[in-house]
Amino acid sequence: MSTQGQVAVIIGGASGIGWATAALMAARGDTVIIADLDGAAATARAGELGGSTAGHQVQVTDETGMRTLFDTVTADHGPVGAVVDCAGISRPGTIADLSLADWQATVDVCLTGAFLSVKEAARSVREGGSVVLVASLNGRQPGVAMSAYCSAKAGVLMLAEVAAMELAPRRIRVNAVNPGFVHTPLTYGATLVPGLVDEYVENTPLGRPGTPEDIAQTIGFLTSDAAGWMTGAAIDLNGGAHTMRYPNIVDRLADMTAASSTNDG
Ligand SMILES: NC(=O)c1ccc[n+]([C@@H]2O[C@H](COP(=O)([O-])OP(=O)(O)OC[C@H]3O[C@@H](n4cnc5c(N)ncnc54)[C@H](O)[C@@H]3O)[C@@H](O)[C@H]2O)c1
Fold it and tell me: Residues 11, 39: contact at Cβ < 8 Å?
């Protein structure tokens, strides 16, 4: 069955990479459902796109809420063709200092959320449809003070492979993308640490951070007929940063603290 004009559910679709993906998929004629923890933003974004787009509030870690979302979408728009999970948070901190609550929050949203997205896709996506999980460069490249995020995203990569095997008999494809540093509200805090983004760029062969549209283009491809023979794959989208090393946020924060105490003195 063709993916043209499919119903696409984008979780975490109200901001950043998810929003760029929603705009791209709506522009090509998909019926885009923007689902987000921030329900007001999801509704507002759907209004911006117009047409058959709709916005819904959802907590990606809530199994009942996710089930209700997919039941509602199926009742309103028919069988789902594509699910894209873009919901993510990051709570940095070295292992010695990271609270259990921050570890659990990160793993819940990034990994359990991906699990529930696949679980609902297994129930609601029609034959020939697809799932894209937004993992991360940090699923394969470690970053100091990013244990929860790196571990959760590594888990997402394996989840995509297992899901690809399990859903293949129904011809549902499951793939992952691994963005490197992309300017979005999620990474705004990192831009306030002097030198951090510069260090990323120095370790990026293509010499720039990504844009949400860089990632949306590939998600658009993965959810289209053009990717009809791709499943269980993870695509690196990071300007080549996976060939080098990730910035050390702890060192950069120490530099910042030292500079501010010098200025104070
Ligand atoms: N920006 C980057 O540099 C980067 C790099 C690698 C991977 N990623 C991943 O890309 C995805 C999108 O991130 P982004 O940079 O666009 O961030 P973003 O903060 O701009 O967007 C994330 C969206 O997810 C929603 N969300 C957060 N928690 C949620 C929850 N519990 N339930 C439902 N929705 C929730 C937020 O409200 C927000 O609209 C995330 O999975 C992130 O980990 C981002």
Answer: no
| CA–CA separation, 199 and 204 (whole Å) | 9
CA of 4 to the centre of ligand 1 (A): 26
Q: What is the pLDDT along the chain (265 residues), one digit of tens a residue?
A: 678 899 999 999 999 999 999 999 999 999 999 999 999 999 999 999 999 899 999 999 999 999 999 999 999 999 999 999 999 999 999 999 999 999 999 999 999 999 999 999 999 999 999 999 999 999 999 999 999 999 999 999 999 999 999 999 999 999 999 999 999 999 999 999 999 999 999 999 999 999 999 999 999 999 999 999 999 999 999 999 999 999 898 999 888 888 877 776 5
* DSSP strand pairing (54-57 vs 80-85): unpaired
Distance 72 CA to ligand 1 centre (A): 23
Best residue for ligand 1 mutational test, from 45, 86, 191 (most atoms within 8 Å of Cβ): 86
Which residue matches tokens 């297992």?
162
Taking CA atoms only, the protein residue closest to ligand 1 atom 26 is 87
The ligand 1 atom nearest the CA atom of 17: 16
CB 56, CB 34: distance < 8 Å? yes
> In this structure, are residues 122 and 73 in contact, taking their beta carbons and an 8 Å threshold?
no
Report CA Rg, the chain: 19
List Cα–Cα distances, 2 to 6, 96, 129, 153, 216, in angstroms: 8, 50, 9, 30, 20
The closest residue, in CA terms, to atom 33 on ligand 1 is 37
CB 89 within 8 A of CB 106: yes
- Homologous superfamily in CATH for domain 7-264: NAD(P)-binding Rossmann-like Domain (3.40.50.720)
